[in-house]
Structures are given as C-alpha cells and as structure tokens.
Amino acid sequence: MSDIHRFKVDEKEVLVSRNWFLGTIKIWIDGVPLKTKMAVVGGVKKVDFQVNNKDVNVTVMIPPVFPAFRAWEYIIKVDNTEIAKVRK
Question: SS3 for 62?
Fold first, then answer.
C-alpha cells in the first residue's frame, strides 16, 4: 500500500492509500481501516462515508487503456467541497 492523500476532517486524520499490485483502494480513519466497498461504474470508483457528521466522497478515475501503467485521478470532497485532486 502506498499513500495517495492524507487529510484531516476536524480532529480525525483520513488516509487514502492504494495497493498498486491489486489496484485496491483502502481508506483509514485515525489508523483504523474503513470497512467499505468501492462501487465501480465505467472506470470510476466511488465511496461515500462520514467522519464527524461530515460527508466525505472519494472518486477515483481509472484510465481505460493500460490502467496499471498510467496515473489514476483521485478527487476528494468534504461536504461537497473539493479539497484535493491528485494524479498518481
């Protein structure tokens, strides 16, 4: 697993990480893994969860051609406000 983005929601630290070999995304809140599945629709993975009564949305755009060798785009929103857009 490698870190994609680390951010804070109030006092809680949220980490989005990716397993480059399997292509799986994991979300950690204060070091505890979030037990959730990302819905995959047409090359886009999405997960919605709450941290301290704030809605957090992570969207991952996966390239259609050779996704293992190209950068993925991660869009992170808290209460519908984009806080990060990362390409890794």
Answer: coil
Question: What is the Cα–Cα distance from 43 to 2, expressed in whole angstroms?
Answer: 21
pLDDT in single tens digits along all 88 residues of the chain: 788 899 999 999 999 998 878 778 899 999 999 987 777 777 898 999 999 999 999 999 999 888 888 899 999 999 999 999 999 8
Q: Measured between alpha carbons, how far is residue 41 from residues 1, 7, 45, 46, 60 in Å? A: 23, 26, 7, 8, 11
| Cβ-based neighbours of 57, under 8 Å, separated by 6 or more | 46, 47, 48, 76, 77, 78, 80
CATH of 2-87, one of 2.40.128.180, 1.10.600.10, 2.40.128.110, 2.40.110.20: 2.40.128.180
- Consecutive H or E run containing 22: none
- The tokens of 13 are what? 């630290």
